Amino acid sequence: MPKGILYVETRPSSPEEAAAYHQWYNETHLQEIVAIDGFVSARRFELLGEDGPFVAIYELDADDLEATRARLNETLKSGSTPVGVSFDPPPVMRFYQEIAAVGPGSA
Questions:
Q1: Fold of the CATH domain 3-97
Q2: Residues 63-90 pLDDT 10s
């Protein structure tokens, strides 16, 4: 079964929006995305020791990663995942397919 991740970089458009951005992302958006078939977990990160974009990593477990990507795009376009704040610059989204694994749970 192919596995992968969705890597997303975002920033709120202003420092004044930061609290609303983090609240929306942590309390609403992560759960909405993980509810999409094929998405199994989500984590967020901030750059250590300097200013930079925030990163969300969504883990994917699906037979068809392209179908999972299409479901995400449909959800985002349908407006069922409203953005609580504006982003500047626009989010950077990248899907990655796993090509090797080492450690607990790896085959």
A1: Alpha-Beta Plaits (3.30.70)
A2: 999 999 999 999 888 875 555 578 889 9
